[in-house]
Design brief:
Elements: E1 2-7, H1 12-16, H2 30-37, H3 39-42, E2 50-53, H4 57-70, E3 75-76, H5 94-108, H6 122-138, E4 143-148, H7 150-160, E5 179-185, E6 189-196
Parallel strand pairs: 1-4, 2-3, 2-4
Antiparallel strand pairs: 1-5, 5-6
Length: 218
């Protein structure tokens, strides 16, 4: 199958560089809503048959315009949520952000036993994200879109794609409503088809001033 992993639209936390991975979390900024509104036209020819969202509000709001245009009802999969911040939740100082990023970077490099301070380990993250994607695959469609989060998408996709180095995702940015497209299955393996790091609606939907820690290169 072909899976489009779509990052949610911009949130207030993205603007201010805050680590925010609590469920249900905030909604979108005005720019984030415009990013979401641009998705139907940008994805009209992708052949999307099913939509999935995480348990966080920002993915559900982002998916709503596309769902309405396609006449689809998104299914909530909690496993698609952002990598937990634990003790770092709500912080935006450089030390906390670097600790979050270095932990995720370690998972990408293969140290999945390490744990985010006060939160999940790499093994636990991959287990719940794999479970969510397995549910998507089990839907039996040829093309699906899953709305998820910056650090989660980059970490999972770069690890499972057989045609990229494990740390590939740490070297690429993923702006709000950027898309990582993979194809394959757990049995036959996954390959990266495309990494669209910019918002699909165009350059006018990029906020160059945002301090977004989970969208920049790690």
């Amino acid at each position: 199958m072909r899976l489009l992993l779509i990052r949610h639209g911009q949130t207030p936390a993205n603007v201010n560089g805050v680590l925010d991975a609590e469920v249900p979390g905030p909604g979108l900024t005005e720019l984030g809503q415009r990013q979401a509104d641009a998705l139907p036209a940008a994805l009209a020819d992708r052949g999307i048959e099913r939509l999935f969202v995480s348990s966080m509000v920002r993915t559900q709001v982002t998916a709503a315009p596309l769902a309405a245009a396609l006449g689809l009802e998104p299914e909530v999969l909690p496993g698609l949520r952002e990598i937990e911040a634990g003790d770092l939740q709500g912080k935006h100082d450089r030390t906390s952000v670097q600790m979050y990023i270095s932990t995720v970077h370690g998972w990408s490099a293969g140290d999945r036993a390490s744990r985010m301070p006060g939160a999940e380990s790499g093994d636990e993250f991959f287990a719940r994200y794999d479970e969510a994607v397995r549910h998507v695959v089990a839907s039996g469609v040829g093309v699906a879109a899953a709305f998820s989060h910056g650090a989660a998408i980059r970490t999972w996709a770069s690890a499972v794609a057989q045609n990229t180095p494990d740390e590939f995702g740490t070297q690429r940015h993923l702006e709000n409503t950027g898309i990582v497209e993979v194809e394959g299955s757990f049995e036959d393996g996954w390959r990266l088809v495309d990494w669209e790091g910019e918002p699909v609606g165009g350059d006018e939907l990029i906020d160059r001033t945002a301090q977004d820690p989970t969208g920049e290169r790690f």
